[in-house]
Each structure stands twice: as C-alpha cells, then as structure tokens.
Amino acid sequence: MSAYPRIRMPSHSSAAAPRKTSQVDRDEHPVDWSYYSHLMKDHDEAMVQNWKEEVDTLLVFAGLFSAVVTAFNIEAYKLLQPDPSLSTIQALETISHQLQQLGGNFTSAAVPRPTSGPTQGRASAQSVRINVLWFTSLVCALFSALLGIMVKQWLREYMAAVSLSSRDSVRLRQHRFEGLIAWHVPEIMAFLPILLEASLILFLAGLVDFLFLLQPLVAGIITSLVGAVLLFYVVSTIAPAFSGRCPYKSPQSWAIIR
C-alpha cells in the first residue's frame, strides 16, 4: 500500500453539493416562529383595542342621541294624527245646518255649511316630512348601535386564544386577518361614524322644518346655526383632498381622497 492517502476525485454527482449546503444553512438558521407570533399578537391587540375604544365612544353617543330623537318623535308623530277638534267642529256644523233646514226662521248666513273634503283631518306634507326625517334619523342611530355591538363580537372572536404551536398560531392569525380584510370589517368600522353623522344631519334638517311650522323667526335663527355647522362639516371633510398636511382626516375624507 502507498504511504500517502488515496484522494477521491469529485464525480459529476457532486454538483448537488451546494443544494445540500443550502439545506444545512436553513437547518442551522430556523425561522423564529415565536418571534413572529408575538409580533403579530402585539399588532392585533393594538388594532383591536383602538377599534373597541372607537366603538365604545360611538355607542355612548348613539345611545344619548337616540334618546334625544325619541323625545322629539313623541311630539312629531302627533302631527300625523287627525285633530279631534276638527271632528267636533264638523259635527256641530252638521247639526247647525240640519237645524237651519228644519226651521225656516233662522238665517243661514250666520252658520256656514259643513265642510267635508278629502283633505280635512289629513296630515300636512310638512308634518309628514318632519316625521320621515326624524324617524329615519332614529333608525340610523339604532342601526349604528346594533352594528357597533356586532363589530365588538367579531373582534372578540378574532382575538380568541387557541392552544397551538407558534408556527400554527402564525398561520391561524394570518387566516383570520385575511378573512377580516376580505369581509370588509375595516370598511364597516369606517362606516359606523358616517352613519351616525348622517343621522345627526337628518335630525337637524327635521328640526329646522319643525321650527318653521311653529315660529318662522326662531326657525330662521336656528337655520343659520345649522348652516354654519354643516358648512364646517363639509369644509373639514374636503380639506384633506387639497392639502396633505391638513389634519382633518376622517373616513369620509379618505373616501374623497381615494
């Protein structure tokens, strides 16, 4: 035997050596699934906490606002009911007219003929309009409260803890997050304040109409105040579309920008 060790020449199959080395490198540096799991958990907790705080604020406002609108609706729906005094007056006019026909000595000029038309006892168009505005406002406020409660339920299920490995936890979280986006939960969250704002605008419109029914002077003053509020709302909504530095950003302003 030779005193020197035998050296094996590399064969053609040694071309796969880099792939084996790459596999070894991957084994030596595995993915830290625990790190990504905690990172995603921190992100989701912050996101869900912000959403819950916003929903809680909207629920408080929706509850107080619904109580205010209900108080006005109690008075407004009476405008749709026929006035009982009209029926009494009509009955008296009918009796008076019959007495005139029975006794020829009475003058018929003093007592008018009974009036019975299709419009008698019927609510006016203004009364109907006021009720439509206020009851629509109430429905929108209650719907926003219902939607807020449902969103909180969805978020609770989204953050439900499951005993899984770090790798499976990351996969489950990604599955839930993609479902959250696919089913437009962020858009529903952005829709909640818009729905309440629409409810408030409807209420103010009905309030102005109701005041014109009672006292035009008071209605004129309140109309100017309501107009100033709505003007500020419109300007603050569209201002971010003209200046990127404008801080008045809201869901409705983002909808205009996009």
Keywords for this structure?
72% helix; DUF6535; 0% strand; elongated; transmembrane; membrane; mainly alpha; 258 residues; transmembrane helix
Q: Which helices and strands appear, and what pairs or packs with what?
A:
Layout: H1 17-28, H2 33-76, H3 84-102, H4 125-158, H5 166-182, H6 185-214, H7 216-238, H8 251-257
Molecular structure report:
By secondary structure, the chain is mainly alpha-helical. It has two domains: 72-119; 124-258, no CATH class. It is 72% helix and 0% strand. The chain is built from eight helices and no strands. The longest helix is centred in the first third of the chain and has 44 residues, at 33-76.
The arrangement of helices and strands along the chain is: HHHHHHHH
Alpha carbon gap, first and last residue: 83 Å
Q: State the major sheet.
A: none
Strand composition percent? under 5%
Tertiary shape: elongated
Keywords: Membrane, Transmembrane, Transmembrane helix
Protein name: DUF6535 domain-containing protein
Pfam families: DUF6535 (PF20153)
InterPro entries: DUF6535 (IPR045338)
